[in-house]
Amino acid sequence: MLKPIRWSTFVRDFFVIQIGFALYGVSISLSLQANLGTSTWSVLEKALADIIGITFGRMTIIMAFFVLMFVLLLKEKVGWGTLGNMLSIGLWLDLFLSVIPSVENNLLLQIMMLLSAILIQGIASAIYIGVNAGAGPRDSLMLAIHRTTKLSLRMARTSIEIVVFTVGWLLGGPAGIGTLIFAILIGPAVQWAFKIFNVKPHKEEDKLVPEL
Question: I want to staple 79 with a disulfide (CB 3.0 to 4.6 A). Which of 3, 56, 103, 113 is the partner?
Answer without folding.
Answer: 3
